[in-house]
Amino acid sequence: QVQLVESGGGLVQPGGSLRLSCAASGIIFRRNAMGWYRQAPGKQRELVAVIGSGGSTNYADSVKGRFTISRDNTKNTVYLQMNSLKPEDTAVYYCNANDPYARDPYWGQGTQVTVSS
């Protein structure tokens, strides 16, 4: 069965950093585009960052210059390094996998990130 397991969330002060990890199993990881999404209270789920199977990346304007997405195909893991965190970054962060041969994407259960003083 496909599993995406996020970790690394927590409480951090404004200006701080966190590194999220998403460990994938049950998929051919290297051919999947991987992404991080987030959902804050009262808001729609939004794309934060994506990384293609070839390593190309895209970021939401709100996180450009602060967040970095990366992947390690030998560990079937995608990361999100978050620096200079702001209170508006507070959300549940979800890992996403898109297999070009699958009908629907896969989702993790999410990890809470809270930025507060």
Please provide a written account of the structure.
This protein is mostly beta strands. Helices cover 0% and strands 50% of the residues. The chain contains no helices and 11 strands. Strands 2, 4, 5, 6, 9, 10 and 11 form a 7-stranded mixed sheet that branches. It has a 4-stranded antiparallel sheet with strand order 1-3-8-7, with no helix packed on it. A hairpin with a 7-residue loop joins strand 9 (91-98) and strand 10.
The tally of beta strands, per DSSP, is 11
Rounded Rg: 13 Å
Pattern of helices and strands: EEEEEEEEEEE
Basic shape: globular
* Low-pLDDT residue intervals, each spanning 5 or more residues: none
Q: What helical percentage do the residues reach?
A: under 10%
- Give the termini distance in whole angstroms: 40 Å
Number of helices, where a helix is a run of at least 4 consecutive DSSP H or I residues: 0
Average of pLDDT: 97
Fraction of residues in β-strands: over 45%
Alpha-beta content class: mainly beta
Largest sheet: 7 strands, mixed
